[in-house]
Write a structure and sequence with these properties.
Helix content is 28%, strand content 26%. It is α/β, with parallel strands linked by helices. The protein has a 15-stranded mixed beta sheet that branches. A 5-stranded parallel beta sheet has the order 4-3-5-6-7. Strand 20 and strand 21 form a beta hairpin. Helix 2 crosses helix 3, helix 2 packs across helix 6 and helix 10 packs across helix 11. The longest helix has 17 residues.
Amino acid sequence: MDGFNLADIHEAIAGIDPDRDCIVWGERRFSWGDVTDRTRRLANHLSAAGLGCHTERSALAGWESGQDQLALYLYNGNEYLEGMLGGYKARCAPFNVNYRYVEDELLYLLDDAGASAIIYHAEFAPRLAAIRDRLPKLKVLLQVADSSGNALLDGAVDYEAALAAASPERPDLPLSGDDLYILYTGGTTGMPKGVLWRQHDIFMSALLPLPLVGNPPSTVDDVVAQAGAGGMRVLAAPPFMHGAAHWMAFLVWHSGGTVVIQRDTVRLDPDDIWATVERDKANMVGIVGDAFARPLIDQLRVKSYDLSSLFLLASGGAILSPPLKEELLELVPHLTIMDALGASETGRQGGNTANAAATVSSGTFSKDANSVILDEDRTGVVEWPSEAVGWLGQRGSVPLGYLGDPDKSRATFPVIDGVRYSTPGDRAQWVDADTYRCLGRDSVTINSGGEKIFAEEVESALKHHHDVVDAVVTGRPSERWGSEVVAIVSLRPGSTVTGADLNETAGRHLARFKLPKDFVFVDEVLRGPNGKADYRWAKATAADAGPAPA
């Protein structure tokens, strides 16, 4: 056995009860049998175009792909998850595309990935038309109809027509645990990079159903056995192009459950989210930090919903600050909040659980079995009781490398004493033998007056003030400090809070030298659709506001 293949797992679970709900999206209902049929048809369409695996993993370096890459340029919907699963069944390698990218960014991503095929919503057809002639490997275009009314691009095929014309038989291909899962990083601090995982490794590191965490399966039958009774109904609110969202979808599938999708997949509509939980009896909702939590909380204060089915809210990808956790538990007392830590290059690394009976905190995590802290030079492991600040890392099932980038691959995935690690750039230190504090991404760390200040730590402290809707922190050149801490903050409408007021609140949680030297107040903090802060925008905004007064 060469490991678990995600398409094999889905096919096996579908055989238990093909009539069980697999995807629920408004009035649309797709059973496990429906999704199996549709993804087989998609796979056969891709295979008929000559796409698939051309070089097996054993003949490749960690930063190389021997498969055709399939771009998913889509909003949330059944087509996104079908695109992933159907791509795997054809032995293609699907990857995520940020639908907010402008032409130059989109061209960079699709060219970097060497995209052979694209599944895209019709809304994006004009943007794609402008760059398609500069994508030499592109062979297949599948256009998903939407309300835009855009006509098919030349050479494109309507997605539903392609499925209807394709064979419903399962493709006879040697699916492997070595087949690729690709996840492009967000690019908020640099150019996006394609993280290459073996499907077996991403399954073990990020997609194990909860009953099997700590007791990993040996065979597909082990996975099927725990999925027999059916799993939860889970609504992942962020875009599926964000790893945390489609990880949640595959997690619920691997437990035999149902993916629930809100009606409005273009913008965050908190009424739509809560109404979907009520209507479709979701047991779990996934969000990305404060950017999602704040509007959801505000909506609960103006309208009541039946949330009796909901027992778990999971957040990942950005800070979920303690004040917002407390508000959520006040409004939904039976809720458990799971603050999960992970990265595109590591999978699951730890968690922080809060409920009405537990003390609410943020920034500290119970470590995963394979989580480690590496020393400054990334040549050794920092063991408790050391409190040295090091690099948060992962061992065991980790990625192969970054697509097309051997140097970055070697730097991020070092081998120490024969063991391969993943260290994507987060700083951390031990709190005790089982708990660590994540200090934030090194690339947004501010060196001010000879001290290292972690942006996320300052952001979290500022959000303890009730009038702060959102905040992002960055550095700005300073003659006195070298780099000074600047906070870009959005406040509740009508608030008259000053920077001094915010520093008074933040000072209860931070040493004084970490407090912002200047504040820039904005109507809205710019974030991606995945809820992550755009630190390039923050740096430019701080620079445009000018240096702090002497």
